[in-house]
Amino acid sequence: MLPLGLSKSKNNNFYALQTPKNYNMGVSMFEETSNAVAVQTCRNRMIFAVIGFFIAYLIIAIRVFFVCLPHGVKISLPEEELTEREIDIPSPIARADILDRNGALIATSLPTVNLYANPKKIQNAKDAALKLSKLFPEIDYDTIYAKLTKKRSSFSMIKHDLSPAQQAEVNALGIPALEFQNSEKRVYLHNNLFAHVLGHTDMDNIGQSGIEKFMHKRLTQSSKPLKLTLDMGIQDTIHEQLAEAVKKFDAKGAAAILMDVNTGDVLSLVSLPDFNPNIKIPLGEKSLFNFITQATYEPGSVFKTFNTALALESGKIKITDKFDATKPVVVQKRKISDDHPKNSWLTVDEILTYSSNIGSVKMAEKVGKDGQRKFLQNLGFFEKVQDFEIPEMGRPLFQSEKNWAPITVATVSYGHGISVTPLHIITAFSAIVNGGIYHNPTLIKSDTQKVSKRVISEYTSEQMRQMLRNVVLYGTGKKADIAGYEVGGKTGTANKADKGSYAKTRVTNSFISTFPTSDPKYALLVVIDEPQGIKETWGYRTAGWNAVPTSGKIISSVAPQLGLKANFDLEAQRAHIKAVQ
Amino acid sequence: MINTKTALLALWFTLTSFVIFGCFILKNQVHDLERELSKINQNIASDIRYIHVSKAEWGHLNTPARLRKLAQEHTSLNNLKAEQIINYSALPFENESSSVALATSETKDLKQLVKTQR
Q1: For a pLDDT cut of 90, what percent of chain A falls above it?
Q2: Is a pLDDT exceeding 90 seen at residue A460?
Q3: B57: closest chain A residue by CA
Q4: For an interface test with A, which of B86, B89, B91 has the most A Cβ atoms less than 10 Å from its Cβ?
Q5: Do B22 and A237 touch (CB under 8 A)?
């Protein structure tokens, strides 16, 4: 059988195109010769083609032979390609991990199984319920029995998140109606430590609060771990110190936040009382309240920091200007006096150092309502803190422009008549000390440039740093003066509002600080809610006796962890060492 | 020419046999490799799950609260405080000669210790 179109030629021994029988009929000798040449050419081409095919075929056959028989296929890839090749293997969990800024795991999901029953397959419900209730003492017999005998149903959930040991025990029961469903459980490795930041998820692993809720989409769409700006070690140190302070001062609660003033990164956020997100939390529980982001409170004298910055930035007041603080000031028939009256004329620096209400009011009056409102608005005090990755955010409370009366100008100057969250305070404070740039605070570690704006001049910022340092050296913040770290800050003791007036014994104390003041890196805000006077504080309950020493302890522990180089006064240190010897 | 034709046909059949045989072997090898790959992938997935759980356990074992408790139980170490860090230049040497004398005596003690150990 010859291939199509080929026939054996009589004139040669090879195969040529089939020649029609009437090929030579009525043609000349010349034409016949010409056709013979064409056939010859064709034949030669065929020979070449066939030889070519044979050679190709031979090469393939030999190659196949060698590939298959002796040692199989040897892949010789460059070494780099072999070692650095990334293989895309699906993650064993559906919800991404959450890491701290150093890559330490703080929240993860573990593969578990849920136990369910198929009531249609159950043979001896009583026996099965008895066995299961012995295995899971937290579920009573009646509940299990009711689930096993559920009518017209082939699915009845018995228990979520079984451990491998429990799964083995259920298997050992040998009840065919019991089946398992693959699941995963969100686990918070540090229990309460990051409670208010991370939040929690429900039984179906859907974020219910905190970052778990805000970043739910990101955590479920990408298996890449989410890196936070928080530092586990620092968070633990602050949590420990704060818990100690709550216990010591018999306080209702306490909160602290540590921020990188140059980026807005939050390194630690603690709010007490807190909760364990690994345990189911009833809605409305007080411990769910995040004091740092949700609590709007009148910050008291802490706000004088912003009033002083406003005064200097307005250009109407110089740092050397003096104000009469010899007698109380009366605004709209309301008398405003100082808690620790100096009864003298005070410079701007002294007004802040001695926390003079009178001086602050006079400075604010000189700047005026419009200047004050514009400045506070620029510092973000009239809106929720923007772009912070927690859904539980408090909205500031303040008078409308129409109702912003002279008394409002006066009271706001020393932190009353306006309620803001601790997050507002630390974010604005960071801008005041870092050279005047306002950064939106963040909890998510990112390399991208964040939104920032200038709110005060570099010169005003420098002046503010010097004055804040003086508060710690000579004013109410002395107990936070940690050698070498040049702490600067401002205290605030605000009486709590109670039935239209201010409670005398219930206070919210704050201390906002930065360190080191010569080149600010971090800002720390410590708030203690309703601390009590104790023997050690001579019965006093003002911020200088509780929030300040707590901040001092925190800075003392945290600064070395942050790798800050202490700037020591050598002579003072030598004197201290000699005194110890 | 018959010989040529026969030789060509023989070559054709030989090569075809080789190719058929080779393909058969190749198919078997591919099957084996696929089985091996599937097994390796299963093992990798299992290892990844195991590593994931181990990481969680490692994280749990390294919680600062647990480490602090262990440190308090088994060592006398406490948290480092800022006051504990001082500059070398702040060390209370009375004068240069006394520091040199101290250094020299320390060196002598060290040399003696090395000698004893030898």
Answers
A1: 48
A2: yes
A3: A189
A4: B86
A5: no
Amino acid symbol at A495? N
Q: Which residues of A434-456 are buried (b: 16+ CB within 10 A; e: fewer)?
A: bbbbbbebbbbeeeeeeeeeebb
pLDDT higher than threshold 80 for residue A6: no
User: How is domain A98-227 classified at the CATH fold level?
Assistant: Penicillin-binding protein 2a (Domain 2) (3.90.1310)
In angstroms, what separates the C-alpha of A439 from chain B's closest C-alpha?
A: 28
Residue of B nearest to A105 (CA): B59
CA distance A575 to A497: 47
- ipTM associated with this complex: 0.71
Write the DSSP string, A21-77. Answer: TTTTTT--HHHHHHHHHHHHHHHHHHHHHHHHHHHHHHHHHHHHHHHHTTS------
Whether A226 contacts A98, CB under 8 Å: yes
Q: Which CATH number fits domain A236-580: 2.40.100.10, 3.50.50.60, 3.60.10.10, 3.40.710.10?
A: 3.40.710.10
Q: A465-498 pLDDT, tens per residue?
A: 999 999 999 988 989 998 888 899 999 988 887 7
**Length of chain B measured in residues:** 118
What was the pLDDT predicted at A9? 45
Highest mean pLDDT among A53-62, A118-127, A305-314: A305-314
User: Residue A81 pLDDT > 70, yes or no?
Assistant: no
* Range from A21-25, B4-8, B43-47 that averages highest in pLDDT: B43-47
Name chain B contacts of A573, Cβ cutoff 8 Å. Answer: 86-87, 90
Q: How far apart are CA A179 and CA A190, in angstroms?
A: 32
